[in-house]
Design a protein that fits this description.
- The C terminus is likely disordered.
- The protein folds into two domains: 103 residues, FAD/NAD(P)-binding domain, CATH 3.50.50; 96 residues, no CATH class.
- It contains five helices and 14 strands.
- With 213 residues, the protein is α/β, with parallel strands linked by helices.
- α1 runs parallel beside α5.
- The structure holds flavin-adenine dinucleotide (FAD).
- The site of flavin-adenine dinucleotide has 24 residues, from α1.
C-alpha cells in the first residue's frame, strides 16, 4: 500500500503526541503508531505528574534550558487548553547545617538556570506554610506544580487530530527500510506501508528506548 505521508511518529505517549502535534501544526501529514489500544498507557500516565521548575539540572545544560522554557510553555498551554493543573509550589527542606549549605547552592544554581523566584526561608516561616514540618530552613520553589497527565495528553491528541494527524492504535511499529522514494514501514499484523513523499518521508522514533535494534 503506497501512502503519501510525511512523518510517522512511533508511540503515543506524551513525547510522541507532542511531536505529532507540533509537526502537524507546521503542515506536515502525520501518522502516530501505537502498540496499545489507547494513548498514554505507558510511562506518561504512570509518573508523578509534577511540573518541574528546573532547579536541579547542571548550569547551561540543555536539560536546564528546556525544563525552564518548557515549564513556562506548559503552564501557558494548560491555561489556554483547560488542562487541570496547579502551581502549588514546593518546599525543599534542610534538617542539618550541611543541608542548609546545599539549599544555598541549589538556590544559586536554580537562579542561574532561570528559576528566578526561589526563596530561602527560616524554619518558622516553613512551619507557617506546613505546621507539621521540622527543619532548619527551606527553599521555596513557587513555580513547581502538578498536572493532570491524562488531560494533557488528550489535549495534545485533540490539537494533533485537528491538524490532520491520524492516530493508529493497536499498531506496533516493527521495522522500516529506506526505498528510492521514501520508506517501507512494517506494522504488526498489517500490510507493509510505502511512504512516498520524497525527502520529507521520515519515521520519527519517539519511544523511550529509541529505534528497535
Ligand atoms: C516513576 C517516574 C516518575 C516520573 N515523574 C515525572 C514527573 O513528575 N514529571 C515529569 O515531567 N516527568 C516525570 N517522569 C518522566 C516522564 O514520565 C517521561 O519522561 C515521559 O512520560 C516519557 O514519555 P514518552 O512518550 O517518551 O514515553 P511513554 O509514555 O512510555 O510512551 C511510549 C509509547 O510508545 C509505545 N510503543 C512502544 N513500542 C512501540 C512500537 N514498537 N510501536 C508503536 N508504539 C510503541 C508504548 O506503548 C507507549 O505508549 C517520570 C518517570 C518515571 C518513570
Amino acid at each position: 500500500m503506497a501512502t503519501d505521508i510525511d512523518v510517522i511518529v512511533i508511540g503515543a505517549g506524551v513525547i510522541g503526541l507532542a511531536t505529532a502535534r507540533e509537526l502537524a501544526i507546521t503542515g506536515l501529514s502525520v501518522i502516530v503508531l501505537e502498540t496499545a489500544d489507547a494513548i498514554g498507557t505507558g510511562t506518561s500516565s504512570r509518573n508523578s505528574e509534577v511540573i518541574h521548575a528546573g532547579l536541579y539540572y547542571p548550569q547551561r545544560s540543555l536539560k536546564a534550558k528546556f525544563c525552564v522554557e518548557g515549564r513556562r510553555r506548559l503552564y501557558d498551554y494548560c491555561e489556554n487548553h483547560g488542562v487541570a493543573h496547579r502551581r502549588c509550589g514546593k518546599l525543599i527542606v534542610a534538617t542539618t547545617d550541611d543541608e542548609v549549605a546545599i539549599l544555598e547552592d541549589l538556590k544559586a544554581k536554580g537562579g542561574a538556570n532561570g528559576c528566578d523566584d526561589l526563596r530561602l526561608i527560616s524554619s518558622e516561616e516553613a512551619r507557617q506554610l506546613e505546621p507539621a514540618l521540622c527543619c532548619l530552613a527551606a527553599l521555596v520553589s513557587p513555580s513547581t506544580g502538578i498536572i493532570d497527565s491524562h488531560g494533557y495528553m488528550l489535549a495534545l491528541r485533540g490539537d494533533a487530530e485537528e491538524h490532520g494527524t491520524a492516530i493508529a492504535l493497536l499498531s506496533p511499529f516493527e521495522r522500516a527500510e529506506v526505498t528510492s522514494d521514501g520508506f517501507t514501514v512494517w506494522v504488526g499484523g498489517k500490510e507493509p506501508m510505502s511512504l512516498t513523499s520524497g525527502c520529507w518521508s521520515m519515521p520519527v522514533a519517539c519511544m523511550r528506548h529509541g529505534w528497535p535494534g
